Amino acid sequence: MRFVKKGAFFAMMLLVAMVLSACNQPTPAATNVEAKKDVVLKIGGSGPLTGAAASYGTSVKQGAQVAVDEINANGGVQGMKLELLFEDDAADPALAVSAYARLVDKGMHVSMGTTTSGAGMAMTEEVKKDGFLMVTPSASQKEITRFDNCFRVCFTDPDQGTYAADFIADNGVAKKVAVLYDKSSDYSTGIRDSFVKQAAERGLEVVSEQAFTSQSNTDFAVQIQAIANSGAELVFLPIYYQEAAMILKQGSTLDVTFFGVDGMDGVITQLGAEYADLAEGVMLLTPFAADSTDEKTVHFVKLYQTAYQSTPDQFAADAYDAVYTIAAAVKASGVQSTDEKDFNTKLVAAMTEITVEGVTGTMTWSKEGEPAKSATAVVIENGKYVAYKK
Amino acid sequence: MAFVIAMINGINLGSIYALIALGYTMVYGIAKMLNFAHGDVIMAGALSVVVLVQQFHVHPALSIFISVIFCVALGVLTEKIAYKPLRNSSSLSVLITAIGVSYLMQNLAQILFGSSLRSFPKVFRWPSVILGSVEFKMDRVITIVVTFILMFFVLWFVYRTKIGLAMRAVAQDREAAMLMGVPIDRIISITFAIGAALAAVAGFFYGVAYGFVGPYSGSMPGIKAFTAAVFGGIGSIPGAILGGFLLGLAESMVKTFISSELSDAIVFGLLIVVLLIKPTGLLGKEIRDKV
Question: Given the DSSP bridges, would you call strands A376-381 and A384-387 parallel, antiparallel or unpaired?
Answer without folding.
Answer: antiparallel
